[in-house]
Amino acid sequence: MGWNTNLRWRLPVICLLLQVVLVVLFGVFVRYDPDADAHWIEERLSKNMSSDLDNEFYFRYPSFQDVHVMIFVGFGFLMTFLQRYGFSAVGFNFLLAAFGIQWALLMQGWLNSFEGNYVLVGVENLINADFCVGSVCVAFGAVLGKVSPVQLLIMTLFQVTLFAVNEYILLELLEVKDAGGSMTIHTFGAYFGLTVTRILYRPNLYQSKERQSSVYHSDLFAMIGTLFLWMFWPSFNSAVSNHGDAQHRAVINTYCSLAACVLTSVALSSALQKKGKLDMVHIQNATLAGGVAVGTAAEMMLMPYGALIVGFICGIISTLGFVYLTPFLESHLGIQDTCGIHNLHGIPGIIGGIVGAVTAACANTEMYGQKGLAHAFDPESFKASWTASLQGKFQAAGLFVSLAMALVGGFIVGFILKLPFWGQAADENCFEDAVYWEMPKEQNITHHSEDPTLKPSEP
Amino acid sequence: MGWNTNLRWRLPVICLLLQVVLVVLFGVFVRYDPDADAHWIEERLSKNMSSDLDNEFYFRYPSFQDVHVMIFVGFGFLMTFLQRYGFSAVGFNFLLAAFGIQWALLMQGWLNSFEGNYVLVGVENLINADFCVGSVCVAFGAVLGKVSPVQLLIMTLFQVTLFAVNEYILLELLEVKDAGGSMTIHTFGAYFGLTVTRILYRPNLYQSKERQSSVYHSDLFAMIGTLFLWMFWPSFNSAVSNHGDAQHRAVINTYCSLAACVLTSVALSSALQKKGKLDMVHIQNATLAGGVAVGTAAEMMLMPYGALIVGFICGIISTLGFVYLTPFLESHLGIQDTCGIHNLHGIPGIIGGIVGAVTAACANTEMYGQKGLAHAFDPESFKASWTASLQGKFQAAGLFVSLAMALVGGFIVGFILKLPFWGQAADENCFEDAVYWEMPKEQNITHHSEDPTLKPSEP
Amino acid sequence: MGWNTNLRWRLPVICLLLQVVLVVLFGVFVRYDPDADAHWIEERLSKNMSSDLDNEFYFRYPSFQDVHVMIFVGFGFLMTFLQRYGFSAVGFNFLLAAFGIQWALLMQGWLNSFEGNYVLVGVENLINADFCVGSVCVAFGAVLGKVSPVQLLIMTLFQVTLFAVNEYILLELLEVKDAGGSMTIHTFGAYFGLTVTRILYRPNLYQSKERQSSVYHSDLFAMIGTLFLWMFWPSFNSAVSNHGDAQHRAVINTYCSLAACVLTSVALSSALQKKGKLDMVHIQNATLAGGVAVGTAAEMMLMPYGALIVGFICGIISTLGFVYLTPFLESHLGIQDTCGIHNLHGIPGIIGGIVGAVTAACANTEMYGQKGLAHAFDPESFKASWTASLQGKFQAAGLFVSLAMALVGGFIVGFILKLPFWGQAADENCFEDAVYWEMPKEQNITHHSEDPTLKPSEP
Lengths: 459, 459, 459
Fold this sequence. Notes:
carbon dioxide transmembrane transporter activity (chains A, B, C); ammonia transport (chains A, B, C); 2% strand; ankyrin binding (chains A, B, C); RhesusRHD (chains A, B, C); Ammonium transporter fold; glycoprotein (chains A, B, C); mainly alpha
């Protein structure tokens, strides 16, 4: 009663409605960036460019594809660890991301690249849209198994909107640097998702407890997600950095931080279990915290050892979070965080914001060179009065704004999602694909070792 | 009787024979493209090039690798959805593609890049060879589970040949634009495969009906294929486009079309099932139709909203096809289309050809600029008389040629494959890996939760 | 007794200790390469560079990411074929590689890019670190299932050190060309690993025989590894080649060799089994031998048909090795080679070294051009006296040095790993994840086809 999960009309109607609106809005607002417009060849000749390669496409496209893999395969498969929720993990992530990137192109375009009544879309917009959806994928991890696809689309609609506003405040108003999104993507996404899952608190969730664990092969599927996230994180943190040294440096720092994070995650995972056995949950998640935590500072002169230290600390804190904090949040604060995003995105995101603020505050001309410093932080509005420590303060302010937006936004959106007509499952049917999917009949997967032509299975 | 699936000599002999012939033909005909030849450095100095980056390699290589992943992991894993046919899906796809790319390098080289008695091979040839094999992978989807690897190699041999001829007619004679291959790859591949499977009609296929469905984890493996196809399709449609804006634009259009397609596929999948549950078959396949259908027009000034509309329509039509058309084709026309390629490649391919023709016919200098228009369509033979509407007519003609080639070619090749000595399986042994593979003994995969050092499994 | 696999303190202590040492050493020694340093913009202006693209980053980064995928997903999943060792295969590979790349950055940096008291790290160093770890992943294949993670970290520590020394001797002292690492990575890694596994010989390994085979889905997971290795091998062999034609040519040669290798592997696999059935072990492994065997010569003017011939031969030899040599090595020489690395990396690596030596010895100005020849082999120390045949001799010498280093190094490291306090498993507990991992409770994965809202699982 009240738990009508029948989506026959709700899901189709909302999907079609959203897509029709998107088509109309794209028709009115979206055009190609000059680098993607057929007039480019004339522009190129007029600017006397030496090579076709000076198209922004060639600076960003390989990174874009890596980010794309992280959003769809990385996040999608990371969440397949639940024994009976693989279809929903990978399928709903696919659905919300496909909707989210379109809506993000519009929202981010209106706020950041609106020129002459049009949003001009190029490869950098595609990356930023993927980034924005990344924060929704983070939040999805907190509510995984407990919400319907209709609720997810509604959540995506609002979260993308709030993300774009928050990003505008940080990047345009506060002139904060956050290329890898420690603040805009991870901190915002995590605390938004945690607030939503708190509002949607299910007191009787223990009824589906037995499905909240993994099975052997579902853990291996999840490792596909983990590894693609881990491997491509250097592309994530460098994708929208300045050309040249900044992209290059962001890759090196992220590579270093992630490597260190693996060792300390493994160390803590083993140390915290009796008999020293490793826990797949930590290997799947905590090893990634180092990528989150250098999101802001990766493009800065953090130095390779600085990146190692960040990864070192985050592997430890993230694993500790899984062992001690997640159970505490659930039992004492009513925060049911399915994937433990607080440990992978929440705390490491805040650490990333702080590391970024400190690294920015320490910037000087000796380290960056005169032109390099101006190039790295290119302050527009407060040019004359710009100092590194001022930048650091604005960075810190950006972190607080992100947290505030996440908490307030999550609170409101949580209550919207609580409305009783979105088709969410009953407590005893959470973490169960069969609620939303036609399930294949389970057959005993016994294979003949003998030649079936000799013993046909049906005589 | 007549169903001798023993491949002991047939498969080795044909593999070795084909490979020996390929070695000889490569020895006689294939050399490096100037950009891949050690003389390049002299050429570069003589042309006074400013940078090593003006090697074609740097324009195409990232896209090539994405296409490569689509052919081998994308198509290979997409077809692992069957419960007992995963080895064959991914293994035979591997085999036919590895053979096909070599044969395609030769066939396409002879027809399109034959210079001074040599086929000069560079990265663009590698991409085109992968494209050509893509059409074989499409056709493989129709006959999946019903043919032997020997038949697949024979089919590849002929289909690659016909593909190259068809491509030559379209691109060289009709001067059609088809960068993403809606016509040459998808329409041709699909109707070729459907014709072949019609000729190979098996009236008693119901005998292996119980193996024609999926199991839980096989559906997750298939999603790996789906997602890599979906994510890298922008690279597919832009891989051989003109440098700069055309590649950039093709990526944006494909990204948009695919995103829209996901939402309408999900909408229809839910609307067409009682209780509104989603069907994995639709999510695995129909979500990709948007990529097929912008194959021709992606590099043109289709506009982002144009791409969204194409994706919108194809998600709907493709899902409808899976629900209504595939069963009809099987029961009334004897077309047993295992993977439903008609819905994913057939109809969307035709739509793509039409969209391309219309978009080309609407091209004008306002939209492209004077130089941009000439650059985009670079008509060589009919330079003076070229008009956009003429281009549109040639595009339409290209679509019909592709269809005709596919039907006639599939008819002939189907009868060749019907010859009784290729080792195909009996009706009751279709969709069964054990016919062609040494199968692992199935053990009960129970894992000890306890420490095995205390309770060793064998005391 | 003596088989205490409890890692509670050993694994955490060694992980944390190694990581702390790495942080300190990075702090003292590692700085950014000029192309990744914020001063780059000043350098660029002073050098009057025309474009941001002349940063080394844009030449190497896409290849780097492909190599990265090969190390972590490729090798990691390739080894998941064992039925109960998937967690360890992918997890320990993750751990050792994350440690190894950091240690390799230092070791290779000290020996090869040490400038003014600092190791200057850029994207090429990241690739080389991945390469170095690749040789450890190869060796891991030999000892898979029989060593503890602590032993693996110790092995990685020593093997990376020896790799860097061997690489220094080959590339700097002998001025050998080995861009794809047939000698430095594959030959060295394989014979090192085989020697280690010989020293660690377990006479009673038959006690865990039943876990040394695969199950249906573990073989599919392994195919993910195989395919990513196969697809990205062209990037592997070209990643550190000279800009332009050399990278381009290395891709073409590797693509050709790998394609040919698939057909001959399939042919032999079928021919050597009664009834002609295919064996997954051969498809997963022997198909890759062609990539190993063109590692040295790929960037040279090997010619496409030359690459086909190499692949042709290696597919045959590698498959023969799996069928005849691996059992012989185990029963007669006590070499228990879990993954058959001798067939995939050992013999093909030696063939690759020989092919490279012959191809180098045949180089001439007609084939390369005057400038091209100097550019391809750029001999520094013995400039005047350089001849192609001399280069060939040095190449051959490099192969012998690699073999000697591997055998001697493996012998010593094997005895170090034999020390009784590293936590290795007893013979009857080999190939068993439960020794080192918290295992998920195995539930019967039956899914309701009915609507669970009607029949809740817990009434």
